[in-house]
Amino acid sequence: MTLVGYLSIQAHANRLANLRLHEAMKVLDRSAFHAPRVGFFPSLAATLNHLLAVDLYYLGALHGEPEGAAVFHRFVPADTVAELQQRQAASDARLVAFCDRLDEAGCDAEVVMDRGDRVQRDRTGHVLAHLFMHQTHHRGQAHAMLSGTAVAPPQLDEFLLPSEAHLRVPEMRAMGWREEAVYAPAPWAGSSPKHAP
């Protein structure tokens, strides 16, 4: 497996996990979305809006956009699950597209990150690894918060292994993605099934 292949799978897995989480949360009304809960950001709304704000900041940096820290500071939180789902889906799609265009040289390219009080520089591969970790970290907190609602927390770790294709059929179909296009099959696995039309 190449680094670019791995990062592409991570971007797709991130999208699928957010899709599954947000689909499960669709039944929550605004009050449940904003209700105080135990967590670093003490509500589902605060936690998931933080994820979106950070995603937008790093996507801007990865694309070399000049706004820098202003993107984060002028962020307006989504007020409902439906609004959050729409905005996160757009952000996730942009991340998938970035990773799908990435090559080995691009993984080593410098990313300049305006932090407001300083400028930070790291390689693209490191920035993406950090971004995926950040998503997983806070999405896990939101997952735990769902235990205090009427929504059963969904399984969110079925999106990395090619051998678990049967566990993500609805999400892959919803995105119009094919297994063999996202997950390069291992030589011993034979051909991957096609799920999308």
TrEMBL record:
Top-rank taxon, per record: Bacteria
Give the Gene3D superfamilies listed for this entry.
dinb family like domain
- One of the record's GO molecular function terms: metal ion binding
Q: Does the keyword NADP apply?
A: no
Q: Does the keyword Metal-binding apply?
A: yes
Keywords for the protein's UniProt record, in alphabetical order: Metal-binding
Q: Which residues bind a divalent metal cation?
A: 50, 134, 138
Query: Which PANTHER family does the entry mention?
Result: DAMAGE-INDUCIBLE PROTEIN DINB, SLR1116 PROTEIN
Q: Which family does it belong to?
A: Belongs to the DinB family.
Which protein are we looking at?
A: DinB family protein
